[in-house]
Amino acid sequence: MHRNWLRWLASKKVKSLLMAVILFVSSLSLVMMAVAQQQPIRLTMMLQASELMPLQELVRDFEAENPDIRIELIEGPDNTNLREDLYTTAFLLGDSAYDLVYMDIAWVPKFAAAGWLLDISSRLQVQEREDFLSGDIEGGSYEGKLYRMPFRSDGGMLYYRQDLLEEAGYAPPDTTEELLEISQDLQAQGKAQWGYVWQGQQYEGLSAMFVEILHGFGGLWVDPDTLEVGLDQPQAIAAVNFLKQTIAERVSPSGVTSYQEEEARRVFQSGQVVFMRNWPYVWRLASEEGSPIRDRFGIKPMVHAPGYSSGACQGGWGIGIAKTTRHPDAAYKAAAYFASPEAQKKFILESGFVPSRRSLFTDPELVAAYEYLPDLLEVIDNSVLRPPIAQYAQASDVLQRYLSAALTNQRTPERAMEAAARETRQLLQR
Ligand code: GLC
């Protein structure tokens, strides 16, 4: 039986049949490999809804030049903290679903320290970095290595109603005192319902806004080199007191403690407010046809306490590469494309966000669309970073929690800031 079986296998017919099968299987796998190689590389990235359309245009241009790469943009929530949480969860789960990480400057130390990002220092050569704003490069670095390609910068500004100020004979305010005085006068005259709106909700925007007021009162949050914490110092308490005063004196609505950027913008744009703290993106929206304050407002550096200087909080967004991506070269190519002068210019013309390249702040076409850009360059060049420490996310949570408690009268500013300083020190000692 066994012998018959061997004889059958050795017969010519069967041999050629076997050969045919082997040939068929190997050519099929070759075809499958070729098909797989022709499949474009797919990259994914999550971002907020308001940036989807203008970024989609850049993606289309990039894909036309790189038919072997496809980029899928995934719409995330507007709140920066919620998107940070989604990226964090994806990384904690292991094989992240995202190849490209569209990151707030404030996330960099945490993501880099956790080892979730590729070091791109050797890809973006030192000479190439020179056109980018130094705050964007600094804020995109951790322990001397670069982890984020700067795409769009940001800096907090004071918006003011030029028409109302001119009518009443006021120059735009430089100090917190002037801001309160002008607000109260114009409110008393019935020219505006509110004096000042800002971001008072408990979220990252509260920390970004507070960095500016703190700087304007000569205070310190955390010194990144010495890890000294200054939140319980008199300057920090004076900064909190100023914010509380705006609410107590009804210069700001009490609801300001639930405002993010968009809530502040909507009420300012409706024409009911004299001053607003916000990012430059508002300029384009408030200047659109049909906006009640079109051509009736200006922007300037933030107010500060008498004797101090103003500091814009350095914000901004850039692109990191997930360490788990299977396509680091394609991912870098895409990040470098988005950050290129041509792509940024197109994106900014469409969206009203701020460039991260110096040369674009004086680009004639961009200046024609956004006249404030040349002045903004100086403001952002002198901006203040949120402390670039690995524990930034927790430190910001602590500050937000206690600041919010002080603003909503659950604790006195002194007690709130003492607790904030104590918890921050404990966090940094861990
Ligand atoms: C803006 C800034 C960002 C900041 C956020 C806070 O998007 O660019 O840096 O963290 O606002 O809401």
UniProtKB/TrEMBL annotation:
Record flagged with keyword Transport: yes
A Pfam family it matches: SBP_bac_1
Segments crossing the lipid bilayer: none
Keyword Zinc: no
Highest taxon of the lineage: Bacteria
Keyword field: Signal, Transport
Similarity comment: family membership: Belongs to the bacterial solute-binding protein 1 family.
Identification of the protein by name: Extracellular solute-binding protein
